[in-house]
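Need tokens for this chain, all 482 residues.
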Amino acid sequence: MDLRADHRQTQTLSPRLQHAVRLLQMSSLDFAAMLRDTLGRNPFLEVDEADGSEPEPGTSPLTSGEVAPAAAAGDAEPVTGPEIDNAALPDDGGDRDLWNAESGGSRRGEEGEVSALDMMAVETSLTAHLHGQLNVLPLSARDLALARAIVESLDDDGYLRTPLEELQEVADLDPAVEGQEMLIALKRVQSLDPAGVAARSVGECLLLQLPAIDCPDMRDLARRIIADHLAALAARDVSGLARQLGEPPARVEAVCDRIRRLDPRPGWRFGASQVAYVVPDVIVKKIRGEWKVQLNPAIVPKVRLNQVYANLFQRHRTSGNAEMSAHLQEARWTLRNVEQRFSTILDVAEAIVRRQHNFLDYGAMAMKPLGLKEIADEVGIHESTVSRVTNNKYMATPVGVLELKYFFSRAMISANGSACSGTAIRGLIKDIIEAESPDAPLSDAEITRQLAQQGLVVARRTVTKYRQMLKIDAVERRRRVA
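Here are the structure tokens for all 482 residues:
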């Protein structure tokens, strides 16, 4: 046995850098939620409500004078508190004045005051809407219990996914519920508004809505299509439906269009829908012929270090205040990491706009091939950092809100030797499909041949993948009858 000393170089991340990496890869919504949580549990952070001005392009999101500039990315030393000149602080009797000055400006709402939330309209859920209709029907207690059991088993789409046999056991009535009783209760619920509710399949949901079709002949043909040829209806195979039904293609097409106007998810009409809004991190505008990038003021946090609390803590700091010391260090880390996050996002967005300004001027066909390494070399950061910055970050442009990753694509060499991006090819495929004839749509193989005629050699499976990325149906579903 012996002792030996080895010298090795290893790369380690300090706690502050780990915190900065976590903040950098968060989306705007996750970052805002994390910041609200930090503000709620850290007494040294507060919202700066006095400063309502918007930051200028390229400026820091934090108020000047609140904290020192962000440390370099390779700084692994923990952040320590600034030196406090005790002579510059008030005496012990001034602590009360500092506290009162900080807390005196807070206001409490008067009791009985009506808030904006109290005046908001309450969304009616599907179950509440159905229960309200059941309450006015002349039903016995047993029938009402069975109908309520079905209503409570509906999903958000308004469908009954639970078998009736299971609902019989759940009802637990005396005498035992029979299958015929459950069917009657189901038909009773299906007769309620909205039409199609409590259906057990898409076909049954559409059949329940057929009374909305006024023409008896059209209604009868729609019933035949839904009951026996639902797969052909979904595939938009009008020619095949016309042959199987023995009807003119124009009439079958008109009936199919009427069926598509029915609601396959009647439950979506009720209840508050959860809409995930995309908030752009940066905004791009053309000013005096040049594209300028600025941070979105809506996502820039107005937070600052509460200097009064920090000064009081530094004045009365003891060895037993380890928890408060950790809060103060976390507050300083948060401010510096937030500044570093937005500074990096702005630098990467500006580099992307400089490379892809032709896309902003001329559209998707002018998109250039771009890799993470090019932006990393220009900004002076690692490729993994660029990947974190572009993940779940969005840019508001005149052509729409786009994810930063949208501007990156690998190069595809054309027949003349020039490089073309995948985004440009997707835009070309979209233009080709939009220009096709409705009664003779182009297949993926035909689109591949047209691209080859323009000097772009692309595999058919690549065309299929790009078409699916554009959310365009296959050729069979795009076909129309003239």
